Structure formats: structure tokens, C-alpha cells
Amino acid sequence: MIQSMTGFGKATTELEKRKVTVEIKSLNSKQLDLSVRMPNLYKEHEMEVRNMLSRELERGKVDFLIYVENIGNETANQINHNLLEGYYNQIKESARKLGIDTPADWFSTLLRLPDVLKYESQEVDEAEWAAVSKTISEAKKQLLSFRKQEGAMLEKLFEEKIANISRLLTDIEPHEAERVDKIKTRITEALHKIEDFDYDKNRFEQEMIYYIEKLDINEEKARLTNHLSYFLETMKSGSGQGKKLGFISQEMGREINTMGSKSNHAEMQQIVVRMKDELEQIKEQVLNVL
């Protein structure tokens, strides 16, 4: 079963001091394009996360994000109360000596002064990272599930489009014999319009056969039929087939284009145009296949 490169996964866990949310979003891309954003708290595990995502997501433009909300009364930023009080007294004394007004908004002024806010580094123990790692796995699992659902929809679409092309290929057949007769008639009538023109009928028949063989599309039909079958087989052979399906659709396009250039018949050309339309829809969506 094929998978889409498009997907989204989100998972949340609440720890003792913080709430951790993990989001993973994936779009189509020729290669793996991985962007990882995580707080400094977990930075030491970034390579571990990157390796895991690279191994399991394979391909796509992947945006990975961890964000943390502190819960409870504890925070990593602590106010240095002694220093804040010292700054307050000094500013008040300086204002008195200089005869200027004290700040209208004391608090915002004081908090901007050096070292009033001090950051206490936090350490992540094994139990906390295990919980975060489990949350990452849950988000990844959701994304993979999303990819499979999208893949099932793409598979259904491809089967429908392949069936349509196959049916249109059959619709061409009744026009082929008619086309040969029309070509013969048109050339013969053109020759008869030339007064006092004599020609070797045997040579004319040889040239006619050669010309009609040049317009024969049986080989293109056979190759296109094989490509249609191969596309379906490849689609059923497992995930990670996106590039291969893209190559097959290109080969299908070559055969359809050649039939169009050889058709020399209005109804056949109309059918070829409809086949091209079906194939373009396949090519557009195959870009999303993993």
C-alpha cells in the first residue's frame, strides 16, 4: 500500500512542572528536508530525534516542533530581590539629589536592569526525557497513520485514472481501420485531381503500405498497456514507491504523445487529449507519494 508524504501528528504530556506538546507536519519534497525546533531544555537530544525521524519518515518536507508550558508556581526565571531593592533605593536617592522625578513605572524599569532576572538552568532527568520521547513517538505514530489514510485515497484515485486510460485505449480501436481507409481515399482522390497524371499502381501500393505502417500505433498501445499494468503492480508492492511511479507515468506520457502525433484522425486525437488529461492528474498527485 502506498503512503502519502502529507501528514500531521500532535501529542501532549503533562509532567510535574511543565506541559510538553510535540507537533510533526509533513509535506511533499524530492528528498527529506527536516526542520527541528526544540527548547534548549532538550537540545542535547536533538541528534537522537533527527536520526529517529530521518529513519522512519524517509522523505518529505518535515517540520518538527516541541514547545513547553510551565505549570504550577515554579519558573526558570527568578527575581533577585536583594538586587532589585538595591537598584530601587539607588534610583530613588539619585532622583532626590538631582531633583528629577522618579520613574512612573517602577517595575518595568527595574526588571530591565542587569541581573535582576536570573535564569536557573534546568536539568532533564532520564524519566522526564523518557516521557517526552514517548510523546514524540505518539505524534510520529499519528503522522504515519495520516500518511496511510492519504495514501489509500491516492491509491483509489490512481486506480480510477488508470482504468479510464485503459478504457480510452480501447475506444481508439474502432477508429484505426476507419483512419486507414480515409487516408487511402484522400490520397487517391488527390492524385485523380491531377490531369493527365499517370502513376505506377504497384509502386503506389508499396508507398501507401509504408506510409500507413509509419502511422501504426500498435506498438505504442502495447507498451502503454504494459505501463498501466506495471503502475498498478508497483503501487501494490509497498511504500516508498513514489519516485518509481513518477518514472512510470513519464513513460506512459511518451507513448500517449506518440499516439497523438501518429493518429492523424480527429476522433482519435480527441481520445488522446482525454488520455493526457487523465495522466496529468496522475502526475500531479504522484508527487505526494512517499
Question: Short description, anyone?
Answer:
The strands form two sheets. A four-stranded mixed sheet has the order 1-2-4-3. The protein has helices at residues 46-57, 81-98, 106-111, 126-192, 201-214, 218-236, 242-263, 266-286, and strands spanning 7-14, 18-27, 32-37, 60-70, 77-79, 117-119.
Descriptive report:
The protein is an alpha+beta fold. The chain is 62% helix and 14% strand. It has eight helices and six strands. The strands form two sheets. It has a four-stranded mixed sheet. Strands 5-6 form a two-stranded antiparallel sheet. Helix 6 (218-236) runs antiparallel to helix 7 and helix 7 (242-263) runs antiparallel to helix 8. The mean pLDDT is 86. Its cofactor is a divalent metal cation. Keywords: Endonuclease, Hydrolase, Nuclease. This is YicC/YloC family endoribonuclease.
DSSP helix count?
Answer: 8
Major β-sheet strand ordering: 1-2-4-3
Helix proportion = 55-70%
Main beta sheet: 4 strands, mixed
Mean pLDDT: 86
Uncertain runs are none
What is the total tally of β strands?
6
Q: Termini separation (Å)?
A: 11 Å
- Report the portion of residues in β strands: 5-15%
The structural class is: alpha+beta
Shape: elongated
In N-to-C order, the SSE pattern is EEEHEEHHEHHHHH
Q: Mind telling me the C-alpha Rg? A: 36 Å
